[in-house]
Amino acid sequence: MQQGRTFRTILAFLYTFYLLAVFYLLFVSNRGGYCGLNLQPFYTINNYLRAWRNDTVNKSIVIRNLGGNFLLFMPMTFCLPLLRTKKRRSLLWVIVTAFLIAAVEALQYLLQVGSCDIDDFILNYAGALIAYPFGLAAAWLCRKLFENGGKRKNENQ
Asked: 6-27 burial, b if ≥16 CB within 10 A, otherwise e?
């Protein structure tokens, strides 16, 4: 049981570091950068893919933008089931995650520290949705490993 608490403490520390890094990336590092609004789904994604095909943009920019948006919220949704001890409510998680990502996009625009782009929301949310079941599976596995010191029930008798 102590191993489980130690694991959760280390994970909470890493999770806090991740959240601070995301905050910096989304709200501090882009000061004076592009601030815009795009509410047309797949407009930015299509522009990046078209520029990739036509070789009119550095491919690392496309990978960093599309891949980064897809991966950005994966650690958050992967780690949450590992940090929480109560029963997980998946529907509530789906709604809260969508609201959180939409709020981040809106705040970036309102604070003029980034763009509010529906494509960013789509990519962020898709990544979050994909990571969450893996977090649930990892949480289940950790519970099995850490209860009874990782021993099977019949080994304790």
From this structure: eebeeeeeebeeeeeeeeeebe
Q: What's the pLDDT band for 32 if we cut at 50, 70, 90?
A: low
What token pair was written down for 156? 């304790």
pLDDT at 142 over 90: no
Of 20, 33, 24, 18, whose CA–CA distance to 109 is shortest?
A: 33
CB atoms within 10 A of CB 113: 17
Q: Amino acid identity, residue 42?
A: F
Torsion of CA 8, 20, 73, 35, to 10 degrees: 170
What is the C-alpha radius of gyration for the chain, rounded to an integer number of angstroms? 19
Q: What's the pTM?
A: 0.86
CA distance 82 to 22: 19
